[in-house]
Amino acid sequence: MTADARRPRIVGFLCDYAVSREGIVREDGTMRDLPNVTLIQVPCSGFVRPAWLEFALRNGAEGAFVCGCPLGDCFNRLGNNLIGDRVAQMRRRLERQKIHPDRVATIYHGLHEQAEFVAAVRAFSERVAALPGPVVPAPRTAAARPPASPTRSPGTGVTGGAPGPAAGPGAPPGEQEGG
Tell me, what DSSP letter sits at residue 154? Predict the structure, then answer.
């Protein structure tokens, strides 16, 4: 199946003051031209938390984006700059979690730029469709995890690894490093 034929599930957060939803969104919140894209309207792009994008990815969406006002023209002062920085940080965090960072994006369009917005969302959808592998890596299996040791550390009541000196100032007295 080619990237053009595949339609990945996408969740988009759309600022009230960015692109007008009129004529491009159905009653169920999906886009008319791209039924695989669900739009959620928010008061400002800066209102969106990166955790919302991550939640969408971990719950079935293959991509997520935020659309804010054009840079330098935010109705709520700096909302689009805030979300741009947050998504950039989130992309780095996703990469460390072995999730392709191109699954999240920011888009900036004004109130009357519906055609440009639809084109940008279509391009994002096509990029997401072309990405390899599952969105969220499979959890490690029990066989891949090191076996837990049932030993008790003397005097601590802690079950776990081999007994030995604790490492640092938070350790019980007498078990601190060098003491």
Answer: T
pLDDT tens digits, 68-120:
888 777 666 766 778 888 889 899 999 998 889 999 999 999 888 999 999 99
Answer yes or no: are the C-beta atoms of 80 and 46 closer than 8 Å.
yes
Q: Which residues contact 96 (CB under 8 A, 6 or more apart)?
A: none
Can you read off the two tokens belonging to residue 83? Answer: 């979300």
CB contact burial 156-174 (16+ within 10 A = b; e otherwise): eeeeeeeeeebeeeeeeee
Residue 84 CA, distance from chain mean position: 13
Burial 42-58 (b: 16+ CB within 10 A, else e): bebbbbbebebbbebbe
Domain ranges in the chain?
10-129
Q: What's the pTM?
A: 0.72
Architecture category of domain 10-129 in CATH: 3-Layer(aba) Sandwich (3.40)
Which value, in Å, is the radius of gyration of the alpha carbons in the chain? 23
Neighbours of 147 (CB within 10 A): 7
**The pair of three-digit structure tokens given for residue 75, joined into one six-digit string:** 């109705």
Cβ contact 62:128 at 8 Å: yes
